[in-house]
Amino acid sequence: MDKSTRDAAASDLRNELKNTSLTTMNAAQYAIMAALTNDAKVGQLEVIMYPGHFTATPPVNGTSYISILTVIMVCPNTHDSWI
Q1: Helices 24-37 and 3-18 meet at what angle, rounded to 10?
Q2: Mean pLDDT by 10 residues, the chain (83 residues)
Q3: What residue segments make up the domains of the chain, in order of their start?
Q4: How far apart are CA 19 and CA 14, in angstroms?
């Protein structure tokens, strides 16, 4: 993604967030994401919380599970972020 596209997306996000009520934690997370996406060489890390059993071992009946997956999104050969 070129710099002008990233800048436009960041501006749109900032404008949208001005009209949104954020917790202190949300504001900190958005600040970190903004800093990472300003550099085209840094990939995006996505954390996915799946409400179920996601391992090679069989689940135990009557037990609740949550699986946490992490995905790093980087364009092959360029190391540019996909966002």
Answers
A1: 170
A2: 75 82 84 70 74 84 88 60 47
A3: 3-73
A4: 9
CA-to-CA distance for 29 and 32, rounded, in angstroms?
A: 5
What lies within 8 Å, CB to CB, of 68 at 6+ separation is 47, 48, 49, 50
Continuous segment of H or E residues that includes residue 3: helix 3-18
Q: What is the pLDDT of residue 75?
A: 54
Can you give the pLDDT at residue 83? 47
Look-up: residue for tokens 């364009």?
75
CB atoms within 10 A of CB 42: 15
Instruction: Tell me the sheet residues that pair with 70.
Output: 47
